[in-house]
Write a structure and sequence with these properties.
Blueprint lengths: L6 H27 L6 E7 L4 H16 L8 E7 L4 H13 L4 E5 L1 H10 L5 E6 L18 E5 L4 H11 L5 E7 L3 H16 L3 E7 L5 H6 L7 E4 L3 H5 L1 H10 L4 E3 L2 H6 L3 E4 L2 H16 L10 E2 L4 E5 H6 L6 H6 L2 E3 L1
Parallel strand pairs: 1-2, 1-3, 3-4, 4-5, 5-11, 6-7, 6-8, 8-9, 12-13
Antiparallel strand pairs: 10-12
């Protein structure tokens, strides 16, 4: 005789079966609908190629890689260089917006300004930008209030002029060669104008608007100055060899606004390490990728400035570097 299963037991068994099926199907749904980890679409827009800006870009990418964003795996990098051409810069910015990049690195002031005019939505990380407020990229350094944040390469201009006095005893007049159409350069030269008289120095300016004018502009200062000061000017640094040629022929010491120029043959700097600056910007990009909003992230300065001296350049420019100054240097190039 067949025993019937009590109704309560049947109900319990049925409930367990339903629960079991729900677990199985929910597991399957989770497995099939779980998206692969998203590949971050990174656009990099750079005004021109020269060692400082290249170092900033590499420092940025190295920091992303150290934190798990690997190009070709979960990071797609679209690096575009305008080679100093504004229409090309505009085309790059337009394309990045059309491609709906997830995040953009804008290297140098012209790149940042062009990119920011094209989008107020895509997060833009800037680096090698001297004065983001004057460039109208942010409302303030403390609270950007826009889709832009990152790092500034504002130089300690007054301290760099002081370094000239230490390196070139008896210096009276300092020449500065710069591109008058770069906002970042105008800002630095303005600071130099204000600082020079306080240091007992006369500042003589030679401005350019095209790279083919740089050699002649430098020559126009020969016999009028005891030293040259080159700020972080993208056009002039890209053509630094033209400045150095004139300077070495006439034994005029060249003090630069950043360390890569010293590696290229300038005498010395107290200034920015662009690889470190790019890395610092990369750290900020990681925060944006985790959900922080650029408008709430203060623009950052490089935490430390280094004295870098090129002894071979000193010899070519007729400068004897004292042991006291060598002792202050964080790096000496021999």
């Amino acid at each position: 005789m067949k025993k019937s299963i009590p109704a309560q037991v049947k109900k319990a068994l049925l409930g367990l079966m339903v629960i079991g099926l729900m677990i199985v199907f929910s597991g399957c749904a989770k497995e099939t609908s779980q998206p692969e980890s998203k590949t971050v679409q990174l656009g990099i827009i750079q005004i021109a190629e020269h060692p400082a800006l290249d170092a900033a870009r590499q420092g940025f990418l190295d920091t992303l890689a150290k934190n798990g964003y690997i190009e070709g795996k979960n990071l797609k990098v679209d690096y575009q260089n305008a080679q100093g051409d504004q229409p090309t810069l505009q085309s790059i910015a337009n394309k990045f917006v059309q491609d709906k990049k997830d995040i953009i690195l804008a290297i140098a002031t012209p790149s940042a300004m062009t990119m920011a005019k094209e989008t107020s939505e895509i997060p833009i990380l800037i680096t090698a930008v001297t004065d983001p407020v004057t460039a109208k990229l942010v409302n303030s350094l403390e609270k950007p209030g826009t889709n832009v944040t990152g790092t500034t390469d504002m130089n300690p201009v007054a301290k760099q002029l002081e370094l000239i006095k230490e390196l070139v005893p008896g210096v009276k007049a300092v020449g500065v060669v710069y591109n008058s159409s770069e906002i970042n350069s105008e800002v630095q030269v303005k600071i130099a104008r204000e600082a020079a008289p306080q240091l007992g120095l006369e500042l003589k300016e030679a401005s350019v608007t095209a790279s083919n004018e740089i050699s002649q502009a430098t020559r126009s200062l020969v016999g009028k100055v005891d030293a040259l000061y080159i700020p972080t000017d993208n056009m002039v640094i890209a053509s630094l060899a033209a400045v150095l040629q004139v300077a070495e022929q006439n034994k005029i010491p060249v003090i630069a606004g950043e360390s890569n120029s010293v590696e290229q043959g300038a005498l010395a700097t107290l200034g920015i390490d662009y690889a470190k600056l790019g890395s610092q910007t990369g750290e900020m990009a990681l925060r944006v990728l985790k959900g922080e909003k650029p408008q709430d992230m203060p623009v950052e300065w490089q935490k430390e400035n280094d004295i870098v001296i090129n002894l071979k350049a000193a010899e070519r420019m007729g400068v004897t570097v004292s042991s006291e100054i060598k002792g202050k240097a964080s790096r000496i190039i021999e």
